[in-house]
Amino acid sequence: MRCLVLLYIFFGFLVSCYAQVGQDTFAGNTDYLEDQFYIGITYNFLLKKPIDVSQRNLSYGLQAGFIKDIPVNADRTVALGIGIGYNVNSYYSNLRAMESGDDVVYDILDGDTDFKRNKVETHLIEVPLEFRWRNSTAASYKFWRVYTGLRFGYVVGGRSKFVSDSADFSFYNDDIRQFQYGLTFNFGYNTFNIHLYYALNDLFNDDVLVNGTEISMRPLRIGLIFYIL
């Protein structure tokens, strides 16, 4: 978590550094590009939850990266984007994972079970692919944008963690799907934009069960994304 805080501070510093630079670079340059750093924060929902599974606490996500802008029309208002980024997500719920020998078993904690935290955490290297529309000009760096596309993610660290007064354990969970992908939609003005990500595959691998039911939960992440020229 300390690394994430430092990463957020670093990109916050870039906001102040690049704001004036971006303005000077745009002015009078008809061949401008919108290569952009981005940072974002989301609230994470879990869709298609098994019966009796519910979310708890604040399920959050943090993301940061860089996107290369590739204009496809003369006015440079339509473009493609490809990038690289890092994303960490936590999903808090009453679905508990426990190691049992070489396997992982799952149960659903009822209301009588007292616990402090129970979560799945993923760390991903991501590749965003975007179709980009904006009403920017060479003389203005403030504009409306709609960026939509796909985002592919590779899980480099997936953990399950449980904390109560009587137990505290955490382990790398191989049941978490390693290759994840979904649809993205970003809309807004200037630096501040609404961000949506809808997963097209499940958070867990196929045939991962709880009480005989497949765990086919899919993330939906909604939040803000900040673009920095």
TrEMBL record:
| Protein's UniProt name | PorT family protein
Residues annotated as domain Outer membrane protein beta-barrel: 27-205
Q: Signal peptide span per the entry?
A: 1-21
Quick check: keyword Signal in the entry?
A: yes
Which Pfam family is one of this chain's hits? OMP_b-brl_2
Q: Which portions of this protein are annotated as coiled-coil regions?
A: none
Q: Which InterPro entries match?
A: Beta-barrel_OMP_2
Q: Which UniProt keywords apply?
A: Signal
Q: In terms of domain of life, where is this protein from?
A: Bacteria
